[in-house]
Amino acid sequence: ESRRRPCSFSYEDHGQDVDFGSRMGVVGMSYSSNLSATTNAKATIYSSVQGMRSNRVRILRDTLMQEVIGTRKEYWNDSDQNDLGVSLRLTKKINAKHSLKTGLIVEAIRYQMRDTLAGKAVSGSKGSTSSIRAFTQWKYRFSRDLSLNIGANGTWFDLARSWAIDPRAGIVWHISRRSRLSAALGMHSQRQPLYLYLQNMENDEGIKGMYNRKLRLTHSQHYIIGFD
User: Fold this and answer.
1) What stretches of the chain adopt beta strand conformation (E)?
2) Spatial distance between the Cα atoms of 64 and 168, rounded to a whole number of angstroms
């Protein structure tokens, strides 16, 4: 026979009042044009906004009387980020076997990060930065049922002064009219959320600073096998 141990609940540890809100919006416009019978160009401009409002208060109670004796502000966040981007893409069909696709994406980023933890500022930055992404992809058709894609993606993130070039490749085989087999591999680099770069941290000597400001792009290797 098993016995359950009595469970103790402490308002000091668990009593919290959390108020959280977020918002997000995107608007954009694109224009596509056939420059020739084998060349298509597409331009897109877009703007996005995202923000977060968070307030967490700990409720303090008397352990004997279980009465509220006060509150303590645990965490507060009021952050905004606005992105303005321009995308240019060009698709060229060289012949029945070869086609080329290339593009460029430029983003201007404005931010305001403000949050505190237990009354101490975690981040408090306002400014702007930018990122540039470019890609090129070549597609070769061995036959109507078998095709190969080889390309590379380049990324530059100005805030961290970090860049990366990621090679990628994929192959698709149409086994029948209703089934296909695919495989791909490649490197993928990305930046982290802005607040991670702008946090105030203490080093081993107890000196505060934005030590994540020069955090490089993070990388992952992807290996994919698919059946449709």
Assistant:
1) 16-34, 39-61, 68-93, 98-117, 120-141, 146-157, 162-174, 180-190, 201-202, 208-209, 218-227
2) 64
Q: What are the tokens at 83? A: 């992105």
CB atoms within 10 A of CB 206: 6
pTM of the model as a whole? 0.78
Q: Which residues contact 126 (CB under 8 A, 6 or more apart)?
A: 111, 112, 113
Task: Please report where in the chains the tokens 């107890």 appear, as a residue.
Answer: 206
**In the Cβ-directed half-sphere of 48, how many Cα atoms lie within 13 Å?**
10
Q: pLDDT tens for residues 110-150?
A: 999 888 887 777 777 889 999 999 999 999 999 999 999 99
Strand, helix or coil for residue 60? strand
Terminal Cα distance for the chain, rounded:
52
